[in-house]
Amino acid sequence: MSDIPKLNELEEDLLKELFNLGVGKAAASLSTIVTQEILLSVPKVEFTKSSAMVDLLNNNTSIISISQSIHGPFDAKSILLFPEHGGMEVVRQMLGSQLSDEAIADLHEEALSEIGNIVLNACIGAISKSMNTVFDVEIPKFNQASPEELLKVSNLLDSDTILLININMKLKDSDIEGYLAFVFSSESLKKLQGSLTQLIDSLS
Amino acid sequence: MSVKTLLIVDDSKVSRMMLSALIKDKYPELVLMEAENADDAQQKVEGNDIAYFSVDLNMPGLNGLELIEILKPKYPDSKFALFTANIQDSTHEQANALNICCVNKPITEESVGKMLEYFNV
Amino acid sequence: MDSNALTIECYWNLVNNINSGIIVLNSEKKILHWNQWIQDHSQFSLNTYKDQLLSDVFPDLKNSRIIAAIDDALELGLPSLISNIFSRTPFALYNSGNFNIDQSNNNRIQQTVNISRIKVEGEKPYCLIQINDVTASTVREQNLEQQVKERKEIESSLLKIETRQRAIMQSMIDALIIFDSNGFIDAFNPAAEKLFGYSENDMMGDNIAFLIEEFSGVKELRESIELMFELGIIGKTKECEARKRNGSHFPVDISISEIELGDEKFFSAVIRDITDRKQIDKIKKDFIATVSHELRTPLTSIRGSLGLLCGGLIADVPKKALDLIQIANNNCERLIYLINDILDIEKAASGQMSFEFRQFDLKTLVKQSIANNESYATQYNVNYQLIEMAKDLTVEVDEHRFQQIMSNLLSNAAKFSIAENSVEIIINFQNDFAEIDVKDYGQGIPDKFKENIWNKFTQADTSTTREKGGTGLGLAISKTLIEAMHGNISFTSKEGEGSTFQLRLPVAKNKTT
Question: What's the predicted TM-score (pTM) here?
Fold first, then answer.
């Protein structure tokens, strides 16, 4: 079992800023496609293990996830996670209340794939720009399953480290909590840490 | 020429560091002060003459716009700039109403340059 | 063919035949290639527009998501999924047949767009755009939406109706039980719960036979419905004996009606506890019995004695005394008639009067009534004339009571006629009813008494009572009796010209000649 790396104050600060930038851009994009004010914020960032993440999600029977794998100087898998009811709420708020429950059930997969794509692209883009790197990014995959199945489908290994980012989405009538998870193998993690150190050094 | 002071208000240490570095690069003669939130900022301005304010929008406690609303009457001759990652129409409107400058994050040479240009240092 | 050439062949084949639009841009966002599909849906030929900026060929893409996505792909390698949900028709593409129409957004095909980067070793990145036509499924979705909306509206109205019906059932003061054609209970309202002492939950699925004494012996549950039909309960009100939870019995009025819901039949029973009413009826019955006995016995005795004295069989009675005894005797008789009349009216009104219905030839009955009253008429110098306008009419009546009515009418007619005139009795048939008109040419009835004519103790003028006798109860009794026999009575009259009383009865059989 590898240790969970601890972020120092500056590293945590940097990552939070980075993701705040990313989700801020995502929120702006989302706001334009539905002409509604959408606010996204990142209250917390920390490293964790896949088992711990599954535990965190376990009080929900079903999780909606949209994931995009990235390949480049380091590889990672980016996943946007919502508890099922939260995901459905996002769709309901963004598609409008006049739609029937049947229509929402019909469209939710497509809608959330698009929304996830916007959020993930914005965050991956923020990382790319700050580290001056371009990644190969896969098209988004949608999944709706129990936390255990999610673990299996995403091929999460015990040895993986997850950068877990809490996300809060504020819509007109609802506040929805979700997660952004960046999964790193031990190799990729080293490279990420290297990049982070470089960035911070360039500031002082 | 008297020495002017610029106050940076942002809850992110990294952001403060980046701003400091980039501003110092352009205008090394400016005196820079930092505050990490609205309360801290209000304390630090007591008894000081601040010429320029660079304020982050999203902070715990009072947000950037609210802080500017409080400070502006106290510093009628000073210039205020709002830095934000989440530029929405409503933010722009409020900034216009207060007659201040709105700048998009990320904090880069470009965005800092835009702010300094507005300040007309 | 080497694998490279094969791959390229496949690619071109695919690209040109695929049922999607494919556009390839270079890193400056200029058009390198697009496929047949794009040509077909835009009427732009590739040759004309190759090497132009995409945003020049499709001007409304400027500042749109599409351009932002293309930038993201080229600069950052990010793939974008643009579904039809939030951006419906980003590209100006149409189905054949719509090109001539004003090319507004409304005619564009509904689209989903996928944008991604193509990286080739050593070269600047390219952008791949794939466009799909989803117009058909969009239309389907909209239709489905419409259907769902309509269904919801119907459900909402039904719910409103159901809620209202339920509210009515719940607030009714009378007990209401709904059961199916096997007698199984479907609904049991609060009033029924209170009356029988069972909760709705207890009774759901149980059989109504359980609650009504008349059905308790029934084996097949379905039989209880048939039994109900037999007993004539369905569609009418019937008195039955009901059973409470605590085992006690009590009398009820049940009104059962049939409800047809599509293929299914249901029945609704309104039940009222008539224990109180029956008690009152019992009191009345006892009263009538008592009065019958207590009043009549002494009177009969008195009349007996007086009769004997009048007859001179006891002793010789001086003329003056005889006159007085005669007056006493007459008054005694009058009293007895009055008591009988009062008792009759009470009996008929409280349903105590028993009728024996049989079928009779109407003409025979009427001739009999004329014969009965002949002597009375002679007193007044009046004769009865029978006129038969319809023949062979059969009616179903209680003979005794019928004659009572006829005597009432015939005696009135004679009494109020002018001497030496006739009273006409006309038998007729109109609107499925047999009609007997008793027509006199006497005084007639003044207008101001006409509306009170059916009331008890009314006579046109109290002076006639002394002169002509009578209790004033006759017409009231006649009306009650004829209505009990499913007929009716009416009259016309003109003061100074006479009156006609019309008696109607339903015809039992009409033997047509």
Answer: 0.61
